[in-house]
């Protein structure tokens, strides 16, 4: 049972850290959110594949618990990004992790403030260690490039309203 809790903790840490860690940032004065951006955006693609989408399949070293997995499989099954009219967001990812043959489902939610600046959307988590993510907003589509597994490889996450 402790092993399963440990794997759940690993998955949740990865999901949370990745949800608000992106490559590249841009600056500028924010225009603030507006009623036009508010709404629910559903995860429609991960690296051009609809969910469920595999973002890692192979060996994995859990640096937090100092544990090596011969086969660590992470699949994103769904996600939603909710933007309200008061500049707040809630982002939820659901997934399945298989670690050396043991499978479990995980769900991670983070929330904070969002700001829109032209075609950029900035998400700043209430959890200060997660930081800020910058994505693009084009019409009813929001796209983020995220190094979800923190291994130097971005995954492209597309949300649509």
Put the structure in a nutshell.
With 161 residues, the protein is mainly beta.
What does this structure look like?
This protein is mainly β. The chain is built from 1 helix and 9 strands. An 8-stranded antiparallel β-barrel has the order 1-3-4-5-6-7-8-9. It starts with a helix and ends with a strand. About 9% of the residues have low confidence.
* CA-based gyration radius: 16 Å
Uncertain stretches of 5 or more adjacent residues: 20-33
Report, as a whole number of angstroms, the end-to-end distance. 39 Å
Shape: elongated
**Major sheet: arrangement of strands:** 1-3-4-5-6-7-8-9
Structural class: mainly beta
Largest sheet, in brief, is: 8 strands, antiparallel, barrel
H/E series, N to C?
HEEEEEEEEE
Mean pLDDT: 82
Discrete helix count:
1
Give the helix proportion (percent range).
10-25%
- Number of beta-strand segments: 9
Q: Provide the β-strand percentage band.
A: over 45%
Sequence-ordered SSE layout with sheet pairings:
Elements: H1 2-19, E1 39-46, E2 53-62, E3 67-83, E4 88-99, E5 102-117, E6 120-125, E7 132-138, E8 141-146, E9 155-160
Antiparallel strand pairs: 1-3, 1-9, 2-3, 3-4, 4-5, 5-6, 6-7, 7-8, 8-9
């Amino acid at each position: 049972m402790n092993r399963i809790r440990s794997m759940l903790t690993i998955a949740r840490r990865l999901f949370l850290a990745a949800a608000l860690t992106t490559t590249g940032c841009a600056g500028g004065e924010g225009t603030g959110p507006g009623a036009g951006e508010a709404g629910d955006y559903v995860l429609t693609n991960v690296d051009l594949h609809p969910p469920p989408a595999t973002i890692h399949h192979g060996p994995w070293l859990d640096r937090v618990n100092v544990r090596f997995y011969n086969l660590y499989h992470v699949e994103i099954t769904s996600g939603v990004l909710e933007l309200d009219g008061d500049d707040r967001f809630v982002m939820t990812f659901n997934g399945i992790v298989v670690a050396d043959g043991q499978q479990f489902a995980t769900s991670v939610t983070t929330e904070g403030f969002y700001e829109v600046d032209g075609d950029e959307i900035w998400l700043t988590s209430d959890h200060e260690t997660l930081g800020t993510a910058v994505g693009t907003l084009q019409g009813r589509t929001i796209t983020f490039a995220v190094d979800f597994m923190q291994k130097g490889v971005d995954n492209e996450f597309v949300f649509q309203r």
